[in-house]
Amino acid sequence: MGIWQSLFGAKPAATPAPPPKPMPIEEVIARVQAGAKVELHVAFAGTDDDEEERGLWALLPHTSGTLRVEVVERLTEFELDEAQQAQLLRAAVERVPGVGFTAAAVASACDLPAIAAKAAAAQPADGAVLDAVGMIVAALCEAALGQGPAEEEFDVGGCAATVAAWSQTVAAAGAGPADLVALDLALQVCLAEDLGEEEIEAGWDEDLEESLRAVLAKVLGHAPRGGGTWHDRLIAGLNAEAPEVALQALIAARIADIPMQDAVLDRVRRQPEDEGAWSLALPLLDETLLDTLAPLVTEQLRHRRMNEDELCSPASQACCGSCGGGDKAAHDDDLMVPKALEARALPLLAFCAKTAGNHVDLVTECLDAPSPNLRYGATAVLSHWPATALPQELWTRLDALKEDSHPQVQANVAALLARRVVPAAKAEE
Q1: pTM score, whole prediction
Q2: Do residues 314 and 334 make contact, with C-beta atoms less than 8 angstroms apart?
């Protein structure tokens, strides 16, 4: 027996902690609306299943991002009626970081073909639900191809029957952009070289491939669901503010063989600072696009370089790679060359390597940029050009960069200067 027990008797047992009290759902919603972080296991601690389900449904409309993913996944654990399944489907494709994060859970909890058939039979058809089903099916097919976040928890074989039944509803009701993407991805699954015997026996076979081709041909031969023309519908989608909708329209346009380059360029011209527009344009990059995009980026770089107030701001000096420092908390726009602007310029620079002597203004501006990434990229481009294609202004810039603060830029510059061709008249002097 220890000293304490011998002097004072047995130590009293610790008082058990009281059970956690559930947070009122109104308080949870208020915290979410205020931008505070909410942990679901804390918010619903101590509640029974019925109370938690009611709270989750009340919370769902107020969520976005990863919290919405968590709420959707929790709700798929309950038994859902048809109306709840349709509601959950719509929520699972809106204001989430990616449909693939919720696709597998939603597909397991919802009867996608039945929901699609009911939405198609409604008067008028419930386009929002049909679009949501198409997006979920597309995410499932991406997972079957080994792409997207749904891959790890996905049963490829079990999806074939869902795709087959859903595609027949699309054939009857018409398609939207999401359906085109889903049909094309499903075809890719059927044609995948690494498709196993088990998956083929489960339904990913030649019969499904033939059926999907027929459905795709049929819907492309008719107006999109909701009326209008495919061209107009996809142009409208391309100009949507939501980047995932615009990307979906661009992919659907490729499937429908509708050129979108002019529409993409028009969006970039109208919104030269819109990252969504650039994310659409850069994958289509060719010489024609380069001729339009290069002057825009050149002017954006020149504006940043010539604006001395911005260049000399404390945040710029602290964060720009060429100035030292590294305040990672600074906003991107406080940098001398924002990362978003670098992301536009670097693909254009890379393409310039194929077009010796063209877009010298862009290359020159990148050599002058207070960004080691752009200076390195510009010198790398020039290494692909014959020395005779470099005008004197570029040689002057290269001479000034011999003592650049970044060793990789220095090495590129030294290699370029070693290739310099001295004019015959100057050599004689």
Answers
A1: 0.77
A2: no
